[in-house]
Amino acid sequence: MQLPLSAAIADRLEFLDEVGSTNTELVSRASGLLGAEWPDFSVLVTTSQTNGRGRLGRVWVAPPGSSLAISVLLRPRLPEGEPLALEHYGWLPLIAGIAMTKAVAGLVPERSVTLKWPNDVQIDGRKVSGILAELLPSRESVVMGAGLNLAFSAEDLPTPTSTSLGLNGTVLVGEELADAALAGYLSELKSLYREFLRLGADPEASGIRDQLSELCSTLGQEVRVQLPGGEVLIGTATDIDTAGRLSVRRSVDDRVVSVAAGDVTHLRYE
Fold first, then answer.
1. Is the pTM here over 0.90, yes or no?
2. How confident is the model over 17-41, as pLDDT tens digits?
3. Which domains, ranges and CATH numbers included, belong to the chain?
4. Rg of the Cα trace of the chain?
5. What b-and-e string marks burial along 23-61, b requiring 16 or more CB atoms within 10 Å of the CB?
6. CB–CB of 67/150 below 8 Å?
7. Average of per-residue pLDDT across 97-101
8. β-pairing, 263-266 with 222-226?
9. Residue 118: CA count within 13 A, CB half-sphere
10. What's the half-sphere exposure (Cβ side, CA atoms, 13 Å) at 224?
């Protein structure tokens, strides 16, 4: 596949005809003996991923050609060249979610495109994209994986709450749609990521926190959060704090809990 718009943005871009998982492949390449050949903002992409993975260990499967699987290598360094501290890495997948939301909005301008915390992109409340970040063994780099539904038919959608760009009025098709979607995402991601680092990983000064709050449809919603340990939290999502965590006011006692990771359901959609 020819991706001229996207190739002009990525520091290195390779399109794979088919791969098990772009994240697994890029982690392997960037961590191996030839890892130095994969600079910051290297990208692997395919329209045929056979063993994709989502958050919480979910399997992510799509018919060949119906979706994009995108993995971007980030080797974050601050202005003086020092590595980004791990405590700030939690903002990177949130930044990716903002970038994908903006890219999708540009392709379906007549639709409502929002971000369900932490980084599920939705069109009119239906999921079109998700993000999965994987830390490299060096713990100084991360691979940011994204799946984007391009051209699913209604019959082939993976869940009843999913959708695709093709079902929402985008005028582009085929390789032109794939390149435009990828280029839009990479352009937004590079701009947000570089500004975040330029300003010392400050989510306030870089505007990242404000943009996340503006795009996030979870805020103000009654939510159910399945926490990693199995506990279920029910309450109202009230804020996103300076660490990127979701603040939830519990229904049982009005106590505000900060959620760093979890599977969020908007109860109004049930």
1. yes
2. 999 999 999 999 999 899 999 999 9
3. 4-213 (3.30.930.10), 219-269 (2.30.30.100)
4. 18
5. bbbbbebbeeeebeebebbbbbbbbebeebbbbeeeebe
6. yes
7. 98
8. antiparallel
9. 26
10. 9
